[in-house]
Amino acid sequence: MKKKIIVFAGSNSKESINQKLVCSISNLHEGIEVINLRDYQAPVYGVDMEQEVGFPELMTSLNKKLKEADGFIVSIPEHNGSMPAVFKNTIDWLSRIEPKVFNDKPTVFLSTSTGERGGASALEHVVAIMSRRGANVIGCHSQGNFQDHYSNGELSGELRSFLSPIIKKLYQAI
User: Are 36 and 8 in contact (CB under 8 A)?
Assistant: First the structure.
């Protein structure tokens, strides 16, 4: 049976380099479905909002899609030393639908930026807390200077070589 891995960036930017990273990874392996959080926008989570209008249809749809996956690759941008608001908001909504958003499935977290540290602070924060949301974290990597490792929709050989064992480990864990 073919394994289904869902990949996405925790970003809603049209030009997200983290989305470019996950799209590039999807070109390297079979069975990978790329989603974009821009397609799953929701109002800012709040208890009052949930009580008044219930769960947004797009969040219910995203939850269903995540349940169908065998594993995940998520690339997190860094905003002010932490995860972006759109990722946090998505997790907030999804965790109200089902607390274990990642369904205890193997998950790899990545981060990249144009700076030296590659979003390491955001990645560290996300890895530290997502196991409580059902992410069975089996690997992570932050990549600095993304512009030096990406050109014309493709990752450099060096970055592909570094990511290949992490992705192989994900497939083995499924």
Answer: yes
Write the DSSP assignment of 14-44 as a string of letters: TT-HHHHHHHHHHTTSSSEEE--GGGG--PP
- Whole-structure pTM value: 0.95
Contact between 100 and 7 under an 8 Å Cβ cutoff? The reply is no
122 three-state secondary structure: helix
Separation between Cα atoms, residue 36 and residue 97, nearest integer Å: 20
Q: Phi and psi dihedrals of 112, rounded to 5?
A: -145, 155
Rounded CA-CA distance 87/5 in Å is: 18
Return the biggest CA–CA distance within the chain: 51
Q: Give me the residue label for tokens 């608001």.
A: 85
pLDDT tens track for 35-46? 999 999 999 999
